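User: quick one, fold this
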Amino acid sequence: MRRVGGHHIAFAALVIVLLGWAGIGVEPAWLNIDAFQFFAKGEANAPRLVRMFAHDGEIGVIDWSPDGEKIAAGGPLHRALIIWDARTGARLRTLDKEDGSITSIRWSGDGRYLAAGRMFTAATRSHVAINVWDAQTGRRVHGFLGPDPSRPEANDVRSGALAFSPDSTLLAAGHLGAVSIHEVVTGRRLSIAKGHVSIGKVAAFAGDSRLVVTSGPGPGPVIHVFDAMSGTLLRSFAGGDQSPFALAVRPDGLEIASADFQHPEISVWATESGQIVRTLTGHTWPIRALEYSRDGRMLASAAPGGGVIIWDAKTGSRLSSLPNPSEYVDCVTFSPDGRYLAAPFGRTVRIWDISHLHSRDE
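Assistant:
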């Protein structure tokens, strides 16, 4: 790795800050990737930073399109959702600025739709909680209201709490105390699951389009599995003393990874039995986000002040980590082929080449 002087690092950082203040979107050509390779701390198989581009504001959530060509990003202050070309960093589209912070972004598996969940201030609580756009044209096709008109604060979509069903026909959203299920084509709300959900953190659909996984109250049961069509609670997993903040379902639906507010470890559960099959340790701070690669072979975890760790999802062994663990990271997303990993850092989206991890046993 080429050694980079501190003045180069400081200059690159200053350019980003100044351009951000000026409201200028920074394309990859503006950013000296070499100046940021100091993030790698010498780990032999560390991912290589290959691309970086800037958002108009602080980024809180991102998601990679199923065709691998685009990344969508949004944040708590800049209300627009921006779509980037994942290969070049060119800005493709800026979707309408709706009221409320963007708390969650998801592409449908067929690539037809892009959804964003929102959280509102007291002055904007009458607006929709979920926007759904046609991903090709940018036309908004649905604006879903929250589940409880009598309690406006209960309609906010929780952080990361959106999930499309595997067949892209249903959209689940987690709210405070409820999970709502919507039919994507018609816009009809099919069910609302209430009473078993504390922070309304939706992980994903498990296995097929009928099961939805969410976090529940602690102590006691901490993960719940619902029937998406009826909202009926099917089973709960007991264990631990905190409700999970981060949840992810392996794409085959057989395992669920969870992490809570208090402990810097990951529990992996068998979906059918509700038993913990392995525990992953390596972080020093509580984990904010979990994400499986789409082939289910890798699991990425992100912790504020604790960096991003990439795990072998089958064995639980640590494969590698993103450099610079001191930065705040609370969202990660794999490219569909599993060869790249993207994460937001402040106002930038950074993309790492992890192909050497993906191809380790091919």
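User: anything notable?
Assistant: The first strand starts at residue 48 and ends at 54.
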